[in-house]
Amino acid sequence: MATAQDRFTRIYEEHYDAVERYVRRRADDAVVRDVVAEVFLVVWRRFDEVPAEPLPWLYATAQRTLANEVRGSRRRTQLVARVAEHAATAIDDHAEDVVGMVSVAAAMDRLSEPDQEALRLVAWEGLNLREAARAAGCSITAFAMRLHRARHRLRQEMTWTTPNPLVALRGEPT
Question: pLDDT, tens digit, for every residue of 31-53?
C-alpha cells in the first residue's frame, strides 16, 4: 500500500512539468518557480482534498496561487508608494518622486523582517494598533513600541549619506 509521501512524490514527479508550463504561460519568469513551489505546498497541506486525477485540481490551485501573487505584487507596489508618501517631503519633480520611491523601497529592504512586518501591517494592510498587535501576536503596547522603533529605523535609513544625485546634476549646492 502506497503511503501519502509516495503518492505526493508520484503527483510531484508526474505533474511538476505540466504545472510549471501552465504557470510559465501566465507569469513572469521571476516568479514561476515560487508559484509552482507554492502549488505543491498546497498539495501537501491539503493532501486529503487532492482527487484521484490531480492535474485539473493542480491547475485550479495554480490559478489561485497566481492570483494571490498578482495581488501581493500590487500590494507591494502600493506599500512602496504609501511609505514614500509618508516618509518623503514635498516632491516637485516626477524624477525626484521616483528616486524617493526607490529610496523607500531600498530602505525597507535594509530593515529587519520584524521592522518590515510592523510597517506593513499598518501601512500596507491598513490595520489599527489593536489589530496589528493581534496579528503580530503581542500586546498593543509592545506593538506600538515596535512600530515606533521601526519608523525611527526607516527614517534613519532614509537619510542621505551621499548628496542627492539629481541636485548635483542641476548644479545646486549640496
Answer: 999 999 999 999 999 999 999 99
